Input
Amino acid sequence: MDKYIRNIYRGVYTVLVGMRVTIKQFFEPNVTHQYPYEHDFEKKRNVREIPKGYRGQLYNRIEDCIGCKKCEMICPVDCITITGTKLPKGEQLWDSMNIVHLKDGREVIGIIEGDDKKIKSEASVTLTNITSRLGPQEVIDRLEPSGVESRTQTLSSDEISRVVTRNPVVFYLDQFDIDMSLCMYCGLCTEVCPTECLVMKDSLEGIEYSKFDRSDLIFQFDKQEMYNKSDASTAEAAD
Ligand code: SF4
Ligand code: SF4
Output
């Protein structure tokens, strides 16, 4: 009989101990999030910093894309689709440009004066027709800043990390889609991109882009507003 009563006592006691923990937690702040409805968990202390160079969502700075299709050709899972319309022979949308990556993360876009585009140490580089942006994910509209077309800037070689040359643009890019639901984040497409306009975001935005519908994971980067489409009637279909 004693044993029977002791068992009841232990049972009730252990339930009360468990309930004490449960009731205490009931009044504590939540540590879980109703994802994807709640996105602001990055502001809380328990999120680690995303390392530089992390392979996140792909982003194409379409203003610098020359439509060479190297990324589309190398993609092992065919998740990039590009269609373009080639301009008549001898015509081009934009001239060759230099993208100067500075050591502090900024980029300056313009045309390097002189024929020699190699940056010699202890030399300075003068760019004309420049515009600038903060980093690889910041978009500029090349057609907008007509008032700054004559701007020049001289940079010392100490400031410069590397220089990328973008060839003249001879395509209207009618479609530049990336299906991130297929992408396996190998990064090959960014490796072959000659203008380095295709990048993988190493920010929270680059890892936090879940969708309920898979079709919403097809990202479209073409910006038709960049073009003066009245010229399109003279264009001929690309191969
Ligand atoms: S990261 Fe790899 S799989 Fe994804 S689009 Fe680029 S080449 Fe294709
Ligand atoms: S490799 Fe780069 S420049 Fe060529 S089509 Fe792809 S994104 Fe554009």
